[in-house]
Amino acid sequence: MVDNGLQAEPSRLPSIGNAWATSVWCIIAAFGTYFCMYAFRKPFAVGKYEGIVLWGTDYKTVLVTSQVIGYTISKFFGIKIIAELTRQRRIVGIILLIAIAQAALLGFALTPPPYSFVFLFVNGLPLGMVFGMVLAFLEGRRVTELLTAGLCASFILADGAVKSLGAYLLRWDVPELWMPCVAGLIAVVPMAVFVWMLAQVPAPSYADVVQRSARVPMDARQRWRFFWTYAPGVVALVLMYMLITVLRSMRSDYAVEIWSGLLGEQVKTPPQIFTSSEIFVALMVMLANGLCFLIKDSRTAFFVSLSISACGTLLVAASVIGLRLGVLDGFAFMVLVGIGLYLPYVAIHTTIFERLLALTRDRGNLGYLMYLADAFGYLGYPIFMLLCRLVFGPSNALRLFSVTCLVMAVISLACIILATAYFRNLGVLAATEIESLIADRSDSVR
């Protein structure tokens, strides 16, 4: 028998029926919570903040960097906090973090530039830990990939949707400095509803624990033991994730400038384009990664997901080449490069780390591995942007993004190959043994 380390609790969901209905409830709760979180984080990026300079740098770059630094620090704190956090404290934690983030946006609106950048740093500090608290409700289940794919769809779609919201608020004459705060206020009520739904989600069942292993809090000693046991493979995966995070962040934070380069400076970027492009990205990425839950054998699912990630890096490189050859127009380029970079990015969230834990059967949780990767991913982004600034000076956003895509796609593919080689001999309980354990448990209950 597998010691789950947690006692499965009865569902607290309002009578919504069978397991599939419960899964739908979980997806809606997680998707909605994290979608709304983006309204407190990303709308500011649609502003241009022209005419404001600080330390010889345009103000938007200062704002993006400030928030990312806060977000990065949050991820490093999250390695400990999320790994050790108990179920009972997650909901309170989410509410408190969002409240701090919104208070910071109010400070941003009330403080004259260029000193208001401090409040975007404060805004990033709490928001970096929301994802781990939401993810913890979904991990360690037989359908975790499906549930987490729904969660990941939120940050793909929300990234474009809240920028569209911000663009519309600016068109409705909301002042540029007040726009992020107003966007956050709009999200408060739906956020409360989705967080309540999340609070009703039950713990994984016995069958979930048998197939995917127990997910329990990890202290510092357990975190270090896990890392050093699998260090070469984990480092390769974290490096790949860091490079993809840089691409994703560039595409997100400088979407206005990249679209302007694609459409032409004389063409005003329509607000809806930020959302419409991401719908195609979300559908393809969620389909590719979410269906991995159908693969019961964790070893097979793990390597299939690495293959999906490799295909994504190749698609990123092919998209840049297609744009330069004139085969792709701007919209197709943004969609395809988005699919390519999000395939490995989401695979890490949905399958790779989830199945790695199922393979090893080690005491641990997904939050620890995700925050280890996220911390270095978000640390890499401001360092990369600063180096680009120092080496190249002010640069065309589209050209810089295209070159970065090519370089990082090649290095990311090499990391995936190294991880595949390292983990190729990693064992796991056979699927038949897992089914036998579940059957034995069912027989004993009857």
Structure overview:
- The chain has 446 residues and is mainly α.
- It has one domain (19-445): Up-down Bundle (Growth Hormone, Chain: A), CATH 1.20.1250.20.
- Helix content is 73%, strand content 1%.
- It is built from 17 helices and two strands.
- It has helices at residues 19-38, 59-84, 90-110, 117-127, 130-135, 144-171, 179-199, 206-212, 220-229, 231-253, 255-263, 273-290, 298-324, 330-360, 366-392, 397-423, 431-445; strands spanning 53-54, 57-58.
- It has a two-stranded antiparallel ribbon with strand order 1-2.
- Helix 2 packs antiparallel against helix 15 (366-392) and helix 10 (231-253) runs antiparallel to helix 14 (330-360).
- It is globular.
- 50% of the residues are buried.
Query: pLDDT under 50 segments (min length 5)?
Result: 1-11, 13-17, 428-438, 440-446
CATH superfamily: MFS general substrate transporter like domains
CATH topology: Growth Hormone, Chain: A
* Strands ordered across the widest β-sheet: 1-2
Number of domains: 1
Topology as H/E string?
Answer: HEEHHHHHHHHHHHHHHHH
CATH class, anyone?
Answer: Mainly Alpha
Outline of this structure?
This protein has 17 helices and 2 strands. The chain is mainly α and 446 residues long. Helix 12 packs parallel to helix 14.
